[in-house]
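Many introductory courses stop at the sequence. We go one step further.
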Amino acid sequence: QVQLVETGGGLVQPGGSLTLSCTASTTFFNIGQSGWYRQAPGEQRELVATLTESGDTNYADPVKGRFTIARDNAKNTLSLQMNNLKPEDTAVYYCNVLGRVFRLSPPYDYWGQGTQVTVSL
């Protein structure tokens, strides 16, 4: 079973920065699309950023210009660099990977366990 392990969450002051990492337990044969989602207390889960296999990125309006999604295949990691953090960014963040573990396997959605990000004084 492939696992996505998230690290990098924590407490940060408004205006600060954090980088979240999502590391797979094995190398993917290929990856179709990757993304980060978040769920704030009392809110629905929302898409934060996506990264296609071709390298195109898309960001939700609230984080556009502040967050950067990237993938490092050599390290089997997906990252989310978060700058100028705001209290409204407080949420549990989840990484998502749509990919193939084996050459002949169908694509499958993999999810991280979630990591808490708290932006507060």
